[in-house]
Amino acid sequence: MISVSNVTKHFDEVHALSDVTLDIAEGEFVTIVGPSGCGKSTLLRVIAGLVSSHGSVSSPAKGAFVFQDAALLPWRTVQKNVELLMELESVPKPERAGKARSALSQVGLTGFEKSYPHQLSGGMKMRLSLARSLVLSPEYLLLDEPLSALDPFLRIKMRSELKTLQKKLGISFIHVTHSQDEAMALADMIVVMNKGKIEQVGDPYEVFNKPKNEFIANFVGGHNVISKNNKSYSIRMDHINVNFDNKNKDTYSMKVNEIEFQGQIVKVTGVTKNFGQLSVSLADDIFLQNKFDVNDEILINWDKTKENSLQ
Q1: pTM of the model as a whole
Q2: pLDDT tens digits, residue range 277-302?
Q3: Distance between CA 295 and CA 175 in Å, rounded?
Q4: Whether 180 and 282 share a structural domain
Q5: Whole-number Å distance between alpha carbons of 137 and 73
């Protein structure tokens, strides 16, 4: 298990981490997510021992780090890039060649041993970076936004491959990302950070459906924040109904000011008298069957039991 206890880190006047405590179980896929400058990459580097801090960190002896920039050596072949760390540790040549081939096989790069980095696609370079980290059989892997430079289609493909690889290896992956969708898709446990502090820890379903506070509700997306009786609540956009038949009397009027087609769904944003600006998520076929325009008045309501109380 990796255990972070009361860790604090300052860079001059900047409080990068403030009294952070976190436990990561063996074999878990953990994503650390938050806005730029929240401290997520600093926390990863503290766990790796690359950055000093106040507090304590305990972890298995053998970990590996996958950086955002793969930093591949262009004059070395794929095979030789993977062998580099073993060369530095004076591993005998036959042994390192075998281990390199095994690592390349794990990430689907068998057959590319004699290629050079410039001959690889972005996804293949990412796989090569992973192979280089796995070759020394780490007990956990730290990944600092490794998919951020890839195009959206390739990111989705690579995150699926990452998840499959982690399950196959059975070791802990601690993955930093600024993408909420990526965090939800990959994680067994999500850590949401803001301003150097951990705001919430939980599984994806819990974090999305039960955000603890207004920051998390807004950050994870898909939620409205409303105020009633001096208390704040979140309500999911897709839990708000549009009453096209006007039969339900328990409704609120909303003047539409934006309609955004997003493929399978249509996001409708408008202003209500009771709750200010709200957004509603409609299936595209429902919207097309009951089409309305900007500046139209529509009626909305929701099941009050779907409201989530915020701290």
Answers
A1: 0.88
A2: 999 999 999 988 888 899 999 999 99
A3: 43
A4: no
A5: 21
